[in-house]
Amino acid sequence: MKKTFKMQTKRQIEINEHVFTLRKSNIDIMKKATELQNDCKRLTSIKNLKEDGINELIKILDSIILYVDEILGEGAVKLITNDAPLGIADAVNLLAFICEAVIEEYNETASDKYE
Fold it and tell me: 35-68, pLDDT tens digit by residue?
């Protein structure tokens, strides 16, 4: 008997008219995004960021940009932003957008399968 497993997820996302294939699983994306978001919250809650805090915030921004490129493919952030610089708020929002899309897609797939 031959049995075939069919992936339930689309594995693609459209951002600013560019379609990307997700290169990470939804659970990997959510785990890493949660870590990065917690780091941002911790640092942005400090009222007076000293030099160390600013450097840490820059590291987090770089980590978010690198992780989005890992999720979507090398150079994705530059393509999405049309090579414009990406600030911390926009980087966090971009990662949140990807997470929301992954959650939405999971919910649709799960409801189709288990209802």
Answer: 988 888 777 666 666 766 778 888 889 999 999 9
Question: What confidence score (pLDDT) does residue 111 get?
Answer: 64
Adjacent-strand bridge partners of 18: 15
The full 3-state SS of the chain, as one line of letters, equals: CCCCCCCCCCCEEEECCEEEECCCCHHHHHHHHHHHHHHHHHHHCCCCCCHHHHHHHHHHHHHHHHHHHHHHCCCHHHHHCCCCCCCHHHHHHHHHHHHHHHHHHHHHHHHHHHC
Question: Tokens 């659970």 correspond to what residue?
Answer: 27
End-to-end CA distance of the chain: 28
Using one digit for the tens of pLDDT, what is the confidence trace for 86-108? 988 899 899 999 999 988 888 87
Residue 15 phi, psi (nearest 5): -135, 125
